[in-house]
Specification:
Layout: H1 5-19, H2 21-26, H3 35-44, H4 53-63, H5 69-90, H6 95-109, H7 112-117, H8 124-136, H9 144-159, H10 164-180, H11 183-194
Helix pairs in contact: 1-5, 1-6, 3-4, 4-5, 5-6, 5-8, 8-9, 8-10
């Protein structure tokens, strides 16, 4: 396992470059009509009325008030880190071999690379869904890693308000499913169904 440690991060680093190909081709981060609102929010550390100020502050902090390349690079790193762990969860022995072909196909044939390269919080919606799955499939409820995943999930969720109701309901379901794993609740549920 230790021999795969550097390979894992090398694979993720290549994934970062693959998912940034539209920005690399454009020679700069991509902008949308709302991008200016987030940039201003990040530069001044102000609140916005109808948009997530968390993403604006994310831009302000990660750009270091130097370059808007940095926020999209950080977005790409976060996305590839979460996606690699998702693939690793599904296929522990093959993750380093199949991750790059998967990311390459997704970056060429879907809007994935465009979402990563835009100065918009849209990329955090799929990240939140993947982290949600990792929370759901985690074995050790309330362990250190689970709590870190939960905190990351709540932070990522605040960067983009889309699907907020879906995520709130899903989080309640996750907690219920995890709670069912406790022995006393299992026996209680069995007793309910015996009546």
């Amino acid at each position: 396992m230790k021999s795969n440690f550097p390979i894992k991060y090398f694979v993720m680093l290549i994934g970062v470059f693959i998912t940034l190909w539209p920005a690399i081709y454009n020679h700069y981060a991509l902008f949308f009509t709302d991008s200016q609102l987030y940039i201003n929010c990040g530069n001044e550390f102000t609140f916005t009325e109808d948009r997530s100020f968390v993403y604006g502050w994310f831009i302000g902090i990660t750009s270091l008030h130097t370059s808007l390349w940095f926020p999209i690079i950080v977005q790409a790193i976060i996305f590839n880190f979460v996606c690699f762990h998702f693939v690793q969860k599904l296929t522990p022995n093959l993750a380093t071999k199949i991750y790059l072909p998967i990311i390459l196909l997704l970056s060429v044939f879907t809007s994935l690379a465009w979402d990563v390269s835009y100065l918009m919080p849209d990329v955090f919606s799929p990240i939140s869904i993947i982290v949600l799955y990792l929370l759901l499939s985690h074995v050790n409820l309330f362990g250190t890693q689970w709590i870190l995943l939960l905190l990351a999930y709540l932070l990522v969720l605040q960067t983009h308000f889309a699907f907020m109701l879906f995520h709130c309901l899903a989080l309640v379901i996750i907690l219920l499913l995890q709670a069912i794993k406790f022995p006393f609740l299992k026996s209680l549920i069995k007793q309910w169904f015996m009546f």
